[in-house]
Amino acid sequence: MNIVEDSPFLASTMRPSALCDELKYDLSCELYRMSTFSAFPMNAPVSERSLARAGFYYTGVQDKVKCFSCGLTLDNWQPGDNAMEKHKQLYPSCSFVQRMLSVNNLGLSSRSAFSPSVANSLSPSLHSIALSPSLEQVGYFSGSFSSFPQDPVTTRAAEDLPFLSPKLHNPSMRTEDARLRTFHSWPLTFLSPTDLAKAGLYYLGTADKVACFTCGGQLCNWEPKDNAVSEHRRHYPNCPFVENLIRDQQSFNVSNVSMQTHEARVKTFINWPTRIPVQPEQLADAGFYYVGRNDDVKCFCCDGGLRCWESGDDPWIEHAKWFPRCEYLLRVKGREFVSQIQARFPHLLEQVNFYCPVTLVFPFIRFEPGESRSEDAIMMNTPVVKAALEMGFSRRLIKQTVQSKILATGENYKTVNDLVSDLLTAEDEKIEEEKEKQLEEMAS
């Protein structure tokens, strides 16, 4: 198993951490928020650390950040800006901000800004939803079966009703993985359990009846051209899960839109080699589609590619090993699953050559003018340096860091983890220096 050579490794690879065994990849954790800033503009006048400490994570767009709790987005940062002060000023009712006012030490908490009982009943995508206790009739299903939720609700965004506590119809079905497990006896072949679970629905065990874990709305009498999300939205438009899902999809960066559905991905495996020991259904469930050559597959969301499948390989585990930042992976399996897989393979990059030494091809390395026949070329052409380059670190920063290492110890880096650790430290120092420089210029 190895990465296809043209996969965007940086976009889906998390920073290694010494706290890997303990840290749950949850945006309510400051350390995890810090890890999202790997591509944050280095010339930004605010530090990654201050933004993460103030509850923000990086969206991947310019210098735009978003609060994990209230959903507030901020960008266009200016010299002298204080992330926490702006957060408190613009959204004083944010539960995270309010908690900050009474808690001094935030650093390593992996708990949600909600109370523990509420946090345990919410998926990360629902942390900003609050439900109104008012009742509203929901639409009838067009078929012979129709149902009202046992606890029907109408909803508004949390920012409109910050004093209300979130509530779910069936908290035990809050994860997509839990919902998927209910479909073991699902009778239909034209509508996949994956798409239904993704739409917030779980199987009730009778005919083709499903229910939403959030609003409790029930649907059945499915037809071949039905879309799970669309039907959920049409019959229960006020369901908070659907509202949140639609908002997420609008900002969901998908690499291959045509491969978003499970059915579309399965269809690509029509010529899948029968000798390959991994089944198309498994691969499609994990977000992969067949690219038509050898046993190469790609994820429709993160564009991560895998090949060299072997007996016993689990597509979800391989997805989490190589592309832990994939949003589809995180939404379906959850951050805890990804963190567990990452913890099992803490030195994955150093082991790459062991797994598939023949087919792994590092990306083409561009040398600077005059560098190709110099000692610099040798210094920059090691597997460790190549791995760091593919992760997206600045070539100049890598070169400076490697040179410093050689000057100090007389030898190059031997492990990717050591190099990445020093690169992250160097990035932080550079950002702090730039910030101090800008403040000095303002003062003068």
Task: Describe the structure in your own words.
By secondary structure, the protein is an alpha+beta fold. The chain has helices spanning 30-35, 48-53, 83-90, 95-102, 116-119, 176-181, 193-198, 228-235, 240-250, 262-267, 280-285, 315-322, 327-333, 335-344, 352-355, 375-380, 383-390, 395-409, 416-443, and strands at 2-3, 56-58, 65-67, 73-74, 129-132, 154-157, 201-203, 210-212, 218-219, 288-290, 297-299, 305-307. Strands 1-12-11-10 form a four-stranded antiparallel beta sheet. Strands 2-3-4 form a three-stranded antiparallel beta sheet. A hairpin with a 6-residue loop joins strand 7 (201-203) and strand 8 (210-212). The longest helix is centred in the C-terminal third of the chain and has 28 residues, at 416-443. Residues 1-25, 103-166 and 350-374 have low confidence and may be disordered. Pfam families: BIR, UBA_BIRC2-3. Residues 377-429 form the BIRC2/3-like UBA domain.
